[in-house]
Amino acid sequence: MTSTDVTTEAENSGPGGYAAARLRLLTEGARSGPPRRTALSGLTDDWLAGLFDAGARGASGAPGLRGVSLIAVGGYGRGELSPRSDLDLLLLHDGGDPAAIAALADRLWYPVWDMGLALDHSVRTPAEARRTAAEDLKVQLGLLDARHLAGDLGLTTALRTTVLADWRNQAPKRLPQLRELCAERAERHGELQFLLEPDLKEARGGLRDATALRAVAASWLADAPREGLADARRRLLDVRDALHLATGRATDRLALQEQDQVAAELGLLDADTLLRQVYEAARVISYAGDVTWREVGRVLRSRAVRPRLRALIGGGKPAPERSPLAEGVVEQDGEVVLARAARPERDPALALRAAAAAAQAGLPLSLHAVRRIAAAARPLPTPWPAEAREQLVTLLGSGRPTVEVWEALEAEGLITRLLPDWERVRCRPQRNAVHLWTVDRHLIETAVRASAFTRRVHRPDLLLVAALLHDIGKGWPGDHSVAGEIIARDVATRIGFDRDDVAVLSSLVRHHLLLVDTATRRDLDDPATVRSVAAAVGSQGALELLHALTEADALATGPAAWSSWRASLVADLVKRVASLLAGDVPEEPASAAPPTAEEERLAMEAFRTGGPVLALRAQTGPPGEDTEEASGEPEPLGVELLIAVPDQPGVLPAVAGVLAVHRLTVRTAELRALELPDGVEGSVLVLDWRVAAEYGSLPQAARLRADLVRALDGSLDIAGRLAERDAAYPRRRGVLAPPPRVTVAPAASRHATVIEVRAQDRPGLLHRIGRALEEADVRVRSAHVSTLGANAVDAFYVTDDEGAPLPGEEAASVARKLEEMLRG
């Protein structure tokens, strides 16, 4: 059926015909994207025009068509109707008979409501419309896209002319207001190019920003870069169309649970492909906005300054000042541009030199300069000349200004020309709530963080390049650290590092997770732990670099990835490894270290009372010298919870369950049995835990002890309490979590078997694991708990009843049963 056929059916059949034609248009598979939006707008135009004509003829005393018109504004005025879009309509009249105007409005609005369509409507005279636009910027933006539907064309044309004239005359005042509106919206909704559940309309780089750029162009003060902008807007509109069809709702939020269906609607491979296209479109719009708003600011400053200059120098236009920054690079009017003598076609290092100069000066790289370099520059030879490598390091070490300059190079495709492997991580989403950024932006953020640590290491150039490359393997299948090691070796060779430096860089990429994983999941008192890290790192210089890279990587990931607690564990591990690399041999731990005075006191009291006793003590560490807000005060590392209880089954799950009931997060857990003094039969279990309050303050020790007594005697139903709390939370649809995985870590310790659990974090997870290990008849010597976002990675050091590591088959059997329990 052609669009003419659809329109004819709608005209002949009234509202019912429009509904059928609309349904057919939205469900026919052959039409989508701009053709469908155009057809839907045209179909709706004709239906509304028919309603207008019938209303004008049928209302008693209705005015003639010369005195009233129906106008589409906003998105409908642009002809961008998505399946569930609002209809933005203005009934414009010349002030005739109010009753007749009201009757005509009713004949227009009620059929729209009866159809179940969302309607944003107003009835105004031209003077009222103009006055409302002057008071409300959003109304004025909507009127800039006014489009005549029916009635008096002259009335509509006059309003359009007046509104555009007002907009251009008021641009010096209105454009700063529009820019502030865009900034406030970005603050509320975030950046579209990084969000896992983005708002296609409101987030920065979304459809509203694209509309704002159209408004700037209509002011005649500045214009956005046109290349790719229309295609980016079209892509976001296509995604919104598919989202409306997939959900049946007028929504602009691309929720996780709907992304696969939206991708299928668009014929895309999967949700990651969908997000990558959304991110690419948002990046184009965001960059166009940055360039456009800089141009607006420059024009407005020029207008404000020029009259004063003319008065001082008697007329004429002064030549802009140009300050040299580097060879072929100058500053002009707040931007970095190419010098007149620059020859990009003869200077392959110019792109990096200009970028480094801009970042060092904290200035944006001009659009004209980047495009001139992209159009004319020759590729760098392999390996790169030393100057190019040094300029890359300078760019990466410039701190926060690096981000804006890198985005300018990225927008014109220069990054992938310099580093072809970048293409696989560009705009790649990371489906992990811990990560704030796409893979490529995370790499740049890591370099920004690493730039603050360059005084801590002997080779800052290796630190910065390792920061840029540490996740480069995420564009390839398999373990990204393994793939990244190969890519990093190739890239480092290409950009001109010597063989020894290439080996260090590839090793840093291969082991960039080693320190934090080991520190949070392994027993640091076990010499096997320290030896394994020392063997992987190899030298004190590499350890120094890896320590700085670990912190920069975590800080660039998000607030959940780094804390004073993690920093203290990593620092402790680094200190031990450095000592070993310096030649000190770690002592083998005694089979039973002597108890502390506090442990002995609690143990005797537990034996005397026959029940658990406990003590709480705040733990602090030294202030972080490299944190952004170092206060000079010790930072809290959590609370030490020391528990002594007569030896009996079920202690671990009981303690873990009570802590979960009280919303305490467990970070580490040490368990040991203390023999009582000579002449006293029996033993006492001592548990040394590090905990932190999930919400608010810590509970009182007396309450913890009372609940622990009840948990041990079976009168406290921990599983039931946790289930009730879980049921009290509202159910939300979300991404299906991957199944839990339990493995045995080979050769992780000489004194125990290390069982590693990776699962979705939830209240009571440690309680369930503890029960399963108790049922497997193994003893838990210590537990190392690590939670990142929704993912828990816990390591348990277990032994048999005699305190020896489990035989291989038995360990595998325990891991298998534990995994089955967690999956059940």
From TrEMBL:
Residues 1-324 are annotated as: Uridylyltransferase. InterPro entries: ACT-like_dom_sf, ACT_dom, HD/PDEase_dom, HD_domain, NT_sf, PII_UdlTrfase/GS_AdlTrfase, UTase/UR. Pfam families: ACT, GlnD_UR_UTase, HD. Residues 640-723, 754-824 form the ACT domain. Uridylyltransferase (UTase) activity is inhibited by glutamine, while glutamine activates uridylyl-removing (UR) activity. Residues 439-562 form the HD domain. CDD domains: ACT_ACR-UUR-like_2, HDc, NT_GlnE_GlnD_like. Keywords: Hydrolase, Magnesium, Multifunctional enzyme, Nucleotidyltransferase, Repeat, Transferase. GO terms for molecular function: nucleotidyltransferase activity. PROSITE patterns: ACT, HD. The keyword Transport does not apply. It catalyses: [protein-PII]-L-tyrosine + UTP = [protein-PII]-uridylyl-L-tyrosine + diphosphate; [protein-PII]-uridylyl-L-tyrosine + H2O = [protein-PII]-L-tyrosine + UMP + H(+). The keyword rRNA processing does not apply. Its EC number is 2.7.7.59, 3.1.4.-. Its cofactor is Mg(2+). Modifies, by uridylylation and deuridylylation, the PII regulatory proteins (GlnB and homologs), in response to the nitrogen status of the cell that GlnD senses through the glutamine level. Under low glutamine levels, catalyzes the conversion of the PII proteins and UTP to PII-UMP and PPi, while under higher glutamine levels, GlnD hydrolyzes PII-UMP to PII and UMP (deuridylylation). Thus, controls uridylylation state and activity of the PII proteins, and plays an important role in the regulation of nitrogen metabolism. Has four distinct domains: an N-terminal nucleotidyltransferase (NT) domain responsible for UTase activity, a central HD domain that encodes UR activity, and two C-terminal ACT domains that seem to have a role in glutamine sensing. Belongs to the GlnD family. PANTHER family: BIFUNCTIONAL URIDYLYLTRANSFERASE/URIDYLYL-REMOVING ENZYME (PTHR47320), BIFUNCTIONAL URIDYLYLTRANSFERASE_URIDYLYL-REMOVING ENZYME (PTHR47320:SF1). NCBIfam families: PRK03381.1, UTase_glnD. This is Bifunctional uridylyltransferase/uridylyl-removing enzyme. It comes from Streptomyces roseiscleroticus. The lineage of its organism: Bacteria, Bacillati, Actinomycetota, Actinomycetes, Kitasatosporales. The gene is glnD.
